[in-house]
Structure prediction request, 221 residues.
Amino acid sequence: ATKPKLFYFRGRGRMESIRWLLAAAGVEFEEEFIETTEQYEKLQKDGRLLFGQVPMIEIDGMVLTQTRAILSYLAAKYDLYGKDLKETVRINMYTDGTLDLMLMIALAAFKPPAEKEQDLALVVKGAKTRYFPAFEKILKDHGEDFLVGNKFSWADIQLLEAILMVEELDASVLSDFSLLKAFKTRISNIPTIKKFLQPGSQRQPPPDSHYVKVVRSVLHF
Ligand SMILES: CCCCC[C@H]1O[C@@H](O)C[C@@H]1SC[C@H](NC(=O)CC[C@H](N)C(=O)O)C(=O)NCC(=O)O
Prediction:
């Protein structure tokens, strides 16, 4: 079968959570990195970007856009979406939260230095006072190894992605969250995730000035 193909910039942005989900599910995927306006405009002209936007993924004969739509399709397809609606809605709640947190980090990359620093300080504060306390409590109340129904799901994958991303900003961010520390170790050791965390995988590095320059030049902003 043909591998899914991802169309996005060579960077994290809104596509990184899709890379994580595919990798954690053990699914090999290809990428076309958008480096020029011509590439982007061809995708638009060919009618492959519903609202003129990326991320876009070609999978199962479909051309999909909208990050959350793609993520929920993949979660369902690879049985990472709960055993019933009540589990699925919890997974949606948790992943909407971690996606909000990670998008704040992604967008900060495009701010001028002073504002970027202020934004990222707010992200770390938000992680420490809003998001991580909530997940620490879920793990405490739930008393299981995973966030939902004691089965590995999309929610676990995305929480690990978010923890690692915030730790890049403040390595001590988990110091008050012992259950999250244990969760991080446990989920990082799942073989497919352990492999994705090794150098040389398709995981993207934090955004740098080159990445910002390319996105700005392609999207003219
Ligand atoms: C570090 C990377 C994140 C910052 C840059 C990205 O965040 C967005 O602000 C821009 C890019 S992502 C690229 C952007 N995509 C979106 O905004 C998609 C939003 C959609 N709701 C989704 O969830 O997929 C884009 O194609 N814009 C063209 C344009 O709308 O005409």
Observations:
- The chain has a mean pLDDT of 98.
- The beta strands are 5-8, 30-33, 56-59, 62-65.
- The first strand starts at residue 5 and ends at 8.
- Residues 11-14, 52-55, 66-67, 106-107, 109-110, 207, 215, 219 surround HAG (CB under 6 Å).
